[in-house]
Each structure stands twice: as C-alpha cells, then as structure tokens.
Specification:
The complex is a heterodimer of chains A (116) and B (112).
Chain A: E1 4-7, E2 10-13, E3 19-25, E4 32-38, E5 44-51, E6 57-58, E7 67-73, E8 76-81, E9 90-96, E10 106-107, E11 111-115
Parallel strand pairs in A: 2-11
Antiparallel strand pairs in A: 1-3, 3-8, 4-5, 4-9, 5-6, 7-8, 9-10, 9-11
Chain B: E1 4-5, E2 11-14, E3 19-25, E4 30-38, E5 45-51, E6 54-58, E7 61-66, E8 71-76, E9 85-93, E10 101-102, E11 106-111
Parallel strand pairs in B: 2-11
Antiparallel strand pairs in B: 1-3, 3-8, 4-5, 4-9, 6-7, 7-8, 9-10, 9-11
The chains are: A mainly beta (116), B mainly beta (112).
Chain lengths: 116, 112
C-alpha cells in the first residue's frame, strides 16, 4: 500500500485563490520531505526541501513567497500556492523517505492543479 | 550538460519483448540508483533500488549499475501492455540528504 499520501488529487480554482496541498508519510516519521513540480512530458523538477521544525530550502528560481511550505510535524508537510495564477497550473508531487537511512524516497500520487 | 541523461523515447515494443532502458550520468559521487515507473497523472512508483555497482533482479525486472562507465540499465522481460508508462531513473550521492537527481524519463508503450 501507499507509504506517502497526498491530498487533494485534483484542484480547480479561480485565479487569485490560495491552494493548500498536503503530504503525509504513513509508515514512518519523515524529518525531510521534498516537493516537485512536473509539466506534461517532462521530468520532475525539485522545488524545495521541507524540513520538520525549520524553514524549507528552496531551489534556485522558486519563489518562496509564492510557494509556502510548512512541515509542522514528522508526518505532515504542506505546500500552499498563494494567489495562484494560470501559469501555476501544473502537477505537484511530494516525496518522503525514512530519516537517517539509505532507503529510497517514496512519492505521493500527485496533485493536479488547474487555475482558471 | 545534464547530470543525468536519459533518452525520452517514445519507445514502442510488442508484447513479450525484452525492454532495455538506460541512463548515463556524470557525477561520480552518485552511489544510490533508482528506477521509478510513472503512469499518466500519477506519482512515481519505486521499481528498483540499487546501491553502488552490480545487478539486482525482482521478478521480470533487472537493474544493472556500472559505476566505472557511469551507466545504469533497467531490463523488463516478457513485457506486458500494463508496463506501458514513463520510466524515470534517479540517483543521489551519500551526502545529499535524500535529494534525487532525475533523468528525463523514457515513455514506453507495449503493444498487445
């Protein structure tokens, strides 16, 4: 079964709305989670590393004020797309892996975000 | 030059064929190598996970890592239409804190 749960799976909303996406690790505590963005026919692009109890680390070119990340517990990270616009429409995916181990990352099922 | 190169395809094969998917990389610090399968509008699903060089087999899937050539492969035997998906290679070094570097993904279609 799934070890990483992501919700919602699909969101359609109007331009200017803020949208929150949740990522939960089900079988383990994750001190670090990762958020990716994927455009059609392209690979995953890492947006940020979510760190439990501290600020997220953003990749170059990713607006931290636009994509707010909160990792308040060891099993939950949230990504909030603030004041979303049509260009923010994309497929957002999170991943997590057991801490302090060499085990691989597992991915959520993704959230398809459509901004009208 | 990208850190990880993967032919995006598309690759089309008949049912039952052996499929070979490959990635090359430039960073010699990479030690952990993964293959993920991604169906349309779904998150990537872990297929194979290998540490350092060598082979690993799981059912119809075999992963190979050749660190001397900086080359990894995924073989799928007796391919099925349900194997039709995008296959992503990913890798990381020991001290990257879990941060993965992905290939572009190869789109595979297995025709009945």
């Amino acid at each position: 079964g799934a070890v990483v749960s992501q919700h919602p799976s699909w969101v359609i909303c109007k331009s200017g709305t803020s949208v929150k996406i949740e990522c939960r690790s089900l079988d383990f505590q994750a001190t670090t989670m990762f958020w990716y963005r994927q455009f059609p026919k392209q690979s995953l692009m890492l947006m940020a590393t979510s760190n439990e109890g501290s600020k997220a680390t953003y990749e170059q070119g990713v607006e931290k004020d636009k994509f707010l990340i909160n990792h308040a517990s060891l099993t939950l990270s949230t990504l909030t797309v603030t004041s979303a616009h049509p260009e923010d429409s994309s497929f957002y995916i999170c991943s997590a892996g057991p801490p302090n181990s060499n085990q691989p990352q597992h991915f959520g099922d993704g959230t398809r975000l459509s901004i009208l | 030059q990208k850190e990880v190169e993967q032919d995006p395809g598309p690759l089309s094969v008949p049912e039952g064929a052996i499929v070979s998917l490959n990635c090359t990389y430039s960073n010699s610090a990479f030690q952990y190598f993964m293959w993920y399968r991604q169906y349309s509008r779904k998150g990537p699903e872990l297929l194979m996970y290998t540490y350092s060089s060598g082979n690993k087999e799981d059912g119809r899937f075999t992963a190979q890592v050749d660190k001397s050539s900086k080359y990894i492969s995924l073989f799928i035997r007796d391919s099925q239409p349900s194997d039709s998906a995008t296959y992503l290679c990913a890798m990381r070094s020991y001290n990257q804190g879990g941060k993965l570097i992905f290939g572009q993904g190869t789109e595979l279609s297995v025709k009945p």
